[in-house]
Amino acid sequence: MTNLSFHKDFKLNGNSFSTVNELLSFSDDMSDEFSFFLRDWFTESNTISVQTSGSTGSPKLILLEKQQMINSALATGFFFNLREKTQSLLCLPIEYIAGKMMLVRALTLGWHLDLVNSSSNPLKDVSKEYDFSAMVPLQLENSINKLHQIKKLIVGGGVVSNQLQEKLQPLESEIFATYGMTETITHIAIKKLNNFAVYPNFYNTLPSIQIYKDERNCLVIRAPKVSNDVVFTNDVVALVSDTEFEWLGRFDNVINSGGVKLHPEKIEKKLSKIIKERFFVAGIPHKKLGQQLILIIEGKKSEINFNDANLLKYETPKQIFFIDRFVETETKKIQRKKTLNLVEF
């Protein structure tokens, strides 16, 4: 496949196409973003401009090579054994890499792709069954009762809480958490969220991915088929093997409280057992400790009992703050720093 062609088995919303122009003409009746991306994809240019989500910094435009996007699509198809005529559902915003790559996979691998609005409850009006789809955690949460309609589902763009993961265990659908970013053209590693063969399970890298740690214990990714550069992340990990790792949290979120380094994501995993609302923990300046651990909860004030969370001494928040609404990115990720600025200490 070249930039100016697509797989002969590709279908969009049940329609087949003989030429690129026929496909582009059909896309004109869809969203502006969808049509624009397709027209950009089928140009002679070897690169395409993609916007990052901005969850860990300011959103920015980066250039990705189309051939590397195709390589990523091929790797996903191989890993999940998704061949031509795979029935797939696109319910993510096409503005960002995750939505774009669902379309690129369909074009490259010859999938039959259906497009629905990227709402928080994407399966609400869907009756058809699918082989594959991708969602963010909020969509997953709201689709629990209809997930039997999707055989394999990948989930990215945020952490799946313990409470949500427990709800997934009785389901026959195969559900996977993904690790990746725009710079790596979505996921470079996959972790099962239900139907475990072995527990605990860890992120497993896709083919042709090499991983190691830097001096900060942050993950470094060498993925020549999807990135020309070695990617130095801010994700603190524990390496289990050459192809497996455990994600511990963001280096830039680490809280140093009295000389003890606390990983918010590890604490939040424990707190998710007792808190149903959206929340996160953070560190604020403290004269004696350097930083003090606090808890921010979205919603009305309520009593929180930490006894059932199995927290260590240093992991118990010293203050709790409630806020009406968290600040989010367009892809519904919590912007921690901007939300923290709204809190009155």
Keywords summarizing the entry:
GMP Synthetase, Chain A, domain 3, alpha/beta, 3-stranded mixed sheet, 2 domains, about 30% strand, globular, about 350 residues, 13-stranded mixed sheet, Rossmann fold
Overall description:
Strand 12 (210-213) and strand 13 form a beta hairpin. The longest helix has 15 residues, at 66-80. The protein has 8 helices and 20 strands. It is globular, with a radius of gyration of 21 Å. The termini are far apart. The protein has a 13-stranded mixed sheet with strand order 2-1-6-5-7-8-9-10-11-15-14-13-12. Strands 18-19-20 form a 3-stranded mixed sheet, with helices on one face. The chain has a two-stranded antiparallel sheet with strand order 3-4. It is an alpha/beta fold and 345 residues long. It folds into 2 domains: 11-250, Rossmann fold; 254-340, 2-Layer Sandwich (GMP Synthetase, Chain A, domain 3), CATH 3.30.300.30. Helix 3 (66-80) packs across helix 4. The protein has helices at 20-27, 32-41, 66-80, 97-109, 137-142, 162-168, 264-271, 336-340, and strands at 11-12, 15-16, 47-51, 61-65, 87-90, 112-115, 130-135, 150-155, 174-181, 186-192, 203-205, 210-213, 218-222, 231-239, 244-250, 255-257, 260-262, 279-286, 290-298, 319-323. The model has no long low-confidence stretch (mean pLDDT 92).
